[in-house]
TrEMBL record:
CDD domains: LamG. It comes from Hippocampus comes. Residues 1-126, 136-325 form the Laminin G domain. InterPro entries: ConA-like_dom_sf, Laminin_G, Neurexin-related_CASP. This is Laminin G domain-containing protein. The lineage of its organism: Eukaryota, Metazoa, Chordata, Craniata, Vertebrata. SMART domains: LamG (SM00282). Transmembrane segments: none annotated.
Length: 328
């Protein structure tokens, strides 16, 4: 279940005060439907209404009852350097329509203007990505493409599974990356062959190579990467590879998002310094399609993505994958 949270801040010459206002628990927003959100400020009271049925309010203390707006953020503030940005989440992912503030249409123009309006990673229309399900394939169509999923939780062991369809034009690309406290886990295609890498970033590293040549010939390859406390296993179709992990790699503590297909710009730089995988330093993303994605036996996919770039969804109809993931 997803809820709306509003962070309200007021400030006078003596102190700054913040209050958090959350929609009612029954107001679920994770149903791939359009929802209305209305926020009003009247003297000391800030009220929020979701879908005209969920009503919540908060009282702002102090003597100043005027709302002074210096900067207004719509969607998120990730990566923006502003002194008033505190306790802000990673940002909204989805579609907004008719965003109005005091009768001003905030979406009337999506073109940036110096010293007035900044626009980042926003486009017109509502992409079908936001109505996709876990059963829809993900198509990575550029050298900058990637998706970011929640952290790959690791205790004793972790498992990643998917079906992979490489592009017929590319023999190299990063498929998976998960950072650890030191080093991390990489799954990449080198010269058409899948390679799994587990390392600390300090010279201790284990690599597994597949003999199978991946072809972009309408073939989906089932992939399973299994990391145990003392070993790493890689399975592609019927081929199985296993290697022992050195003591330095036992109980690898993964952290941060699980990246598929590629990395965001800053993460490319961080991962390159760890020295894992030959393609990370070159910034080469996987080009092709992934489907049937599972993390620790739990199905995941586009509804769980927090950040993405240069991807489309392949929708399944009557057992066939239409769109670009049918054959790449």
């Amino acid at each position: 279940m997803c809820q709306v949270t509003l962070l309200v801040s007021s400030q006078n010459q003596f102190r700054q005060c913040e209050r958090s206002l959350r929609s009612e628990r029954g107001a679920s927003l994770s149903d791939l439907m359009w929802h209305s959100v209305d926020v009003t400020h009247n003297h000391h009271r800030v009220s929020m209404t979701v879908d005209r049925s969920s009503h919540t309010r908060v009282h702002m203390p102090g003597t100043d009852v005027e709302l002074s707006v210096d900067t207004l953020f719509v969607g998120g503030a990730l990566g923006l350097n502003h002194p008033q940005i505190v306790n802000v989440s990673s940002g909204f992912r989805g579609c907004l329509d008719e965003a109005v503030f005091n009768e001003l249409n905030l979406l009337s123009s999506l073109r940036p203007y110096a010293n007035y309006e900044s626009v980042h990673e926003v486009s017109l229309g509502c992409s079908h990505l936001f109505s996709a399900t876990e059963h829809d394939a993900v198509h990575f169509f550029s050298s900058k493409a990637f998706i970011s999923l929640p952290p790959w939780e690791s205790e004793q062991e972790v498992v990643f599974e998917c079906e992979l369809h490489p592009s017929g034009n590319e023999d190299d690309g990063l498929v998976l990356y998960s950072a650890a406290l030191q080093g991390g886990v990489v799954l990449e295609i080198r010269g058409g062959h899948l390679v799994a890498v587990v390392g600390t970033g300090e010279g201790s590293k284990t690599e597994l190579y597949s003999d199978i040549k991946l072809h972009g010939n309408h073939t989906w390859y089932p992939i399973r990467l299994h990391i145990l406390p003392h070993a790493v296993q890689l399975k592609i179709g019927e081929e199985f590879r296993q290697a022992s992990l050195s003591p330095a790699l036992h109980l690898l503590q993964l952290r941060g998002p699980l990246f598929l297909g590629g990395l965001e710009d800053q993460t490319w730089s961080d991962a390159s310094r760890a020295g894992l995988g030959k393609l990370i330093g070159r910034g080469v993303s996987f080009r092709g399609c992934l489907r049937e994605i599972k993390v620790n036996a739990q199905r995941t996919g586009l509804p769980h993505v927090s950040i993405s770039r240069d991807i489309t969804a392949g929708f399944q109809h009557h057992g066939r994958f239409e769109d670009s993931c049918r054959g790449a």
